[in-house]
Amino acid sequence: MPELPEVEDAAKRLRAHAVGRTIVATRALHAATRRTLPPRAARRLPGRTIVAVERRGKHQLLRLDDGAFLHIHFRMAGDWSFGRSAEDPPRHARFVLDLSDGSRVALVDSRALSTVSVVASADALPPLGLEATDPALDAATLRAALEKRRVAIKLALLDQRVVAGLGNIYVAEALWHARIDPRRPAASLSLERLDRLVRGIRETIEVALANPGRYSTGEAEGLHVYDREGERCDRCGGRIRRIVQGARSTYFCATCQR
DNA sequence: ACTAACCTGGTC
DNA sequence: GACCAGGTTAGT
Q1: Would the pTM count as exceeding 0.90?
Q2: Nucleotide nearest to A112 (CA to C1')
């Protein structure tokens, strides 16, 4: 469940659950998790109180009372599950935090690609562009971020250094809103198109933020192009196509996205 | 700039 | 059995 809106919702749920609580114990239940959170790093966590939960792009940062951060990235399939420490952790639990009130937070991830690590500061994150929700994101800042980029706009938008928080689904949706062909070279877009794109990004992300959990229920409800190959475009009735860019699927309407 | 790799599970 | 999946990074 992992683009900006889903991570924002996850961070919100975690915040309500964990802020002010103290970590009693941690469990790294999968070898891949122990790779990013080796025992020497996990050892410092018990006794620490979680003082805040922050989100930056698709990253979550749990600020601890010693100033360090527990850094979580859900990658393709991570999510939080809440329960009691006494219960068995849920299926696909990869990492568990037992908290001082007897509750338990589990990172569930069927694919085990999520990462958990301890970082000294928020600067330790990989470089990120403006948040997709940042009011400062406009045609001019987007143009600056895209100049010299010869790659297709679809691929450029997946690059977190350009805009933070977008992923494969919402990039496709934002380009549909903006009526832009995902194959266009990123640096070739006019300011007028970039303005449409900014509005498309905003519209897509705001709708998703306002409907937490909707797309994680499995139905592509509310999506205009993603996973709708062969169906009719809501706007012009054209056929939605699927192409491959950077080894991932891109869905778009070749009739109204030019 | 492209590919392979990290993982597991669901679907054809 | 092969292929696909919402992400990212290390390697060519």
Answers
A1: yes
A2: B7
